[in-house]
Design brief:
The structure is a single chain. The protein is about 40% helix and about 15% strand. The chain contains 14 helices and 14 strands. The chain has a seven-stranded mixed sheet with strand order 2-8-7-6-5-3-4, with helices on both faces. A three-stranded antiparallel sheet has the order 9-14-13. Strands 1-12 form a two-stranded parallel ribbon.
Length: about 400
């Protein structure tokens, strides 16, 4: 019997659903189709000029043409530590920072460093599609705890308590959330952090949307709100969302020195240093003002209100108003099993994946189905695209979904 060509570990990984939807939408656009893409969480703004200029200047300096420390340029690690104190009120030494190739490598490094085979990680659900795959790659077991729209997609301590077993090692905590845009209040963050500390759990917190909150809702770092966690917290972050730098691929993880040293050892064998030129761009970003994100937030807030109103005008769609990030998470369970007219007859989607496929085929609007983030019955739409595209896309959705019988 011949051996499998691809290892079981790798063949078990699901493709990133968000990137798959985005790739299909872009391919259709390239073929001349008028596709509106709500798939990828990517600001439609250019990276600020001063950040780009810093990269251009760095490219001309021979010292940046060489290898640099695997864990990141010392000046960037120092700036990230200072930025973390400024934005989160959390004091760390630069030695507690590892600069990674985007936020995803920070996620991978963290779970690979903390998780042993069989360890359980509590994952509030809906979750970003990469988390459970990174946990499984490390040999861990993601334990989903689902919070629906009736509780604003926010899990409770009671739900977390019910999910704990003797194998639980880590709580994953994300606020503001991708995919829902939910933001935990300072009181909720403190309560969850205190609970995790009392259980002796690690907390891995993804703070990449920290600067994207609305309606006066504050961002609260669990590392600061729950000091009793001590050295059992790892912060994940990056420049992608705050500074419109998704393509530059610079993220980081912050944690206790022993964990960061181990994760740096891993990275030294996997990718070595992040490209020096983007690191210098990231240095300009985190050391500079937050003017760019403040300007983007004005547009995001406008689009947030428009998309929520537009989706809630569709019978069978329930869309809570998100307080952060740049996504809405629409409940479309009432539309499943309904009949829709199509170009070739009719269709009756039974899952949100089938509904999303139908929407793309019939009205050329790309959305990501709930299956990518947890249970079926939901659609995630990013409102980080332009105002005109957003209005056109919502109108197409209204016209098509409104025909459900």
């Amino acid at each position: 019997m011949s051996a499998a060509r691809v290892s079981q570990r790798i063949s078990a990984i699901a493709e990133s659903a968000t990137l798959a939807v985005d790739a299909k939408a872009k391919a259709l656009k390239a073929a001349g189709r008028p596709v509106i893409g709500f798939g990828a969480g990517e600001p439609d703004f250019p990276t600020p000029d001063y950040i780009v200029q810093a990269a251009i200047d760095a490219a001309g300096q021979p010292k940046y043409h060489r290898y640099s420390p695997a864990g990141g340029l010392p000046e960037l690690k120092k700036a990230i530590a200072e930025k973390t104190l400024r934005d989160s009120g959390y004091a760390v030494d630069p030695s507690q920072v590892l600069v990674t190739n985007g936020g995803k490598q920070a996620v991978y490094n963290t779970f690979a460093t903390l998780v042993d085979p069989g360890d359980e990680v509590i994952v509030p659900t809906p979750f970003w599609t990469t988390y459970p795959e990174a946990i499984r790659l490390a040999g861990g077991v993601p334990v989903e705890v689902f919070a629906g729209p009736e509780q604003d997609y926010l899990v409770t301590v009671e739900q977390l308590e019910a999910a704990v077993t003797v194998r639980t090692k880590i709580l994953l905590f994300v606020s503001p959330s991708n995919p829902t845009g939910a933001v935990y209040s300072p009181e909720q963050v403190a309560e969850i952090g205190a609970w995790a500390a009392a259980k002796g759990l690690w907390v891995v917190t993804d703070e990449i949307y920290e600067h994207l909150t609305y309606d006066g809702v504050p961002f609260t770092s669990i590392a600061t709100a729950a000091p009793e966690l001590g050295d059992k917290v790892v912060i994940l972050n990056g420049v992608a969302k705050t500074y419109a730098m998704t393509g530059w691929r610079v993220g980081w993880m912050i944690g206790p020195a022993d964990v960061i040293k181990a994760a740096t050892n891993l990275q030294s064998h996997a990718t070595s240093n992040v490209s020096n030129i983007p690191q210098i761009a990231a240095l300009a970003a985190v050391s500079g003002p937050l003017t760019a994100v403040d300007e983007m937030k004005v547009a995001f807030d406008r689009r947030r209100k428009a998309i929520v109103a537009g989706l809630n005008a569709i019978e069978g769609v329930e869309c809570p108003t998100p307080k952060g990030a740049f996504y809405v998470y629409a409940d479309v369970r009432a539309l499943l099993g309904k009949e829709f007219p199509t170009a070739s007859g009719t269709a009756t989607p039974q899952t949100s994946a089938e509904l999303a496929s139908l929407i793309l085929d019939e009205v050329e609007v790309a959305v990501v189905p709930g299956e990518a983030f947890g249970p079926s019955g939901f659609l995630r739409l990013s409102y980080a695209l332009g105002d005109d595209d957003l209005a056109t896309g919502v109108q197409r959705l209204q016209e098509f979904l409104g025909k459900a019988q």
